[in-house]
Design a protein that fits this description.
Blueprint: H1 2-14, E1 18-22, H2 52-57, H3 59-73, H4 81-91, E2 97-100, H5 106-110, E3 115-117, E4 120-127, E5 133-135, E6 155-159, H6 168-180, E7 183-187, H7 199-205, E8 209-214, E9 227-230, H8 233-245
Parallel strand pairs: 1-2, 1-7, 2-3, 7-8, 8-9
Antiparallel strand pairs: 4-5, 4-6
Helix pairs in contact: 1-8, 4-8, 6-7
Length: 257
């Protein structure tokens, strides 16, 4: 593993622009379980609760499940070492942007600025009537469904439900990163969710080097990954951070910020 860490560090230090592509696995050590697989969210709850059409027709039932999963259960999650190392990489001009499939806001809480959320953010709530936004905590969830203080419209978490489109800003940033990056560092995603899973393949086709950190081999491992480091995201990123941050940066002016 030490040899792979060193090789990954060398790639990252030479890269003019690096993108981190993160999935549910990066947040497991923060106490947020993945949605798929054994012990995942969808093993305990019916995914139809996050279908947009079902939400519109059954807002009380849908919001009851949403509140339990995203606001009662996940509300105390905090950034782990993987989030913090990525934020430090950005500060040191070693990371250009993060494309995340997660909706937990942990990258921003860790201090990352250039974060593009492929599936939205659970910390925001939007009115389907007047499109006013609220921050979680400013809206009472004691009674569901919550409604807008301005127009009385139904409020919805500002993340992508099944049947909704991907935010255009995230799509544009992802396509740009795929063409711009020298290195993609994939963390905690198996590559199963469309269309996000296509972004690393696009980057590879554009000549990008792929570093992958996952607890198990993924759809990327045997096809596009150049360096596969198997293990927990927080543990591996902490070791990578030690390697990266102990090396002086001598070409910061040549990096793309």
């Amino acid at each position: 593993m030490e040899d792979k860490i060193r090789k990954a560090s060398d790639l990252l230090l030479k890269s003019r622009f690096t993108t981190a592509f993160t999935g549910a696995g990066i947040s497991v050590e923060s106490g947020i379980p993945p949605f798929r697989g054994n012990g995942g969210i969808w093993a305990r709850y019916d995914p139809k609760s996050l279908e947009y059409a079902w939400f519109i027709d059954h807002p009380v039932e849908s919001w009851s499940i949403i509140k339990t999963i995203f606001y009662d259960y996940f509300g105390n999650a905090r950034p782990n070492k993987a989030h913090l190392v990525l934020a430090e990489m950005e500060k040191r001009a070693l990371l250009g942007r993060i494309i995340t499939q997660n909706i937990d806001n942990l990258h921003q809480e860790a201090g990352s600025k250039e974060v593009f959320e492929f599936h939205g953010n659970s910390k925001r709530i939007v009115c389907l009537g007047c499109h006013r936004y609220y921050i979680v905590g400013s809206v009472s969830l004691d009674h569901v469904p919550p409604t807008c203080r301005e127009c009385g419209g139904l409020l919805k978490p500002d993340f992508v439900f099944f049947g909704e489109g991907i935010p255009q800003s995230a799509l544009s940033a992802s396509y740009e990163a795929a063409s711009l990056s020298d290195v993609f560092i994939i963390i905690g995603t198996t590559g199963e969710v469309m269309p996000a899973n296509q972004i690393p393949f696009m980057a590879k086709s554009a000549g990008c080097s792929i570093i992958e950190i996952n607890t198990e081999p993924s759809n990327y491992t045997g096809s596009i990954t150049d360096i596969f480091i198997q293990g927990k995201a927080g543990e591996i990123m902490e070791k990578l951070g030690v390697e990266l941050f102990s090396t002086p940066l001598d070409n910061d002016e040549d990096r793309i910020n």
